[in-house]
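Board notes (copied after class):
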Amino acid sequence: MLGLLYSLSNTDRTNIGNAKIEGLPETLGLSTLQYNTCLGTFFVPYTLLEISSNLALKKLARPSYYIGALTISWSVVLTLTSIVRNYQGLLVAKLFLGIAEAGLFPGAILIISTWYDRHELATRVAVFYSAAALAGVFSGLLAYLIVKLDGLGGLEGWRWIFIIEGLEPLLLE
């Protein structure tokens, strides 16, 4: 389950590239610098909050609640990214996505390392990382299929990418 969540997290983190191909910068009137700033904005809170997130996770009695709350948070943020109308909106969305996703990776590694002994750990971590690699393989194909909804409900195809890929993690909760 953690591998699947990490896979979805990676898809959610990288789908902005697929949205770019489908016209996100043109619709929002983004310059190349603004687009790249939005990409980088994600990693500021993502990097800064990883350690504090694990400290919070260690204090909780039920890690499943914590990971579940993170998953719901990033799902909501990603889905709401579909309604941004300008650079500032996308910047804020990427900032909050970084906050919401910051705890998943370190939390999953903490959980895996707590549950399994050292002889089982390498295999479990390898499976965990492999799930993320598989996400990279299929995210482009999934985005290609999603953008065929372009025009449905008056929404551009790139907005549908954020809606559908944002709702996917909620289905696991």
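Comment from the instructor: The two ends are 11 Å apart (CA to CA). The first helix runs from residue 2 to 21.
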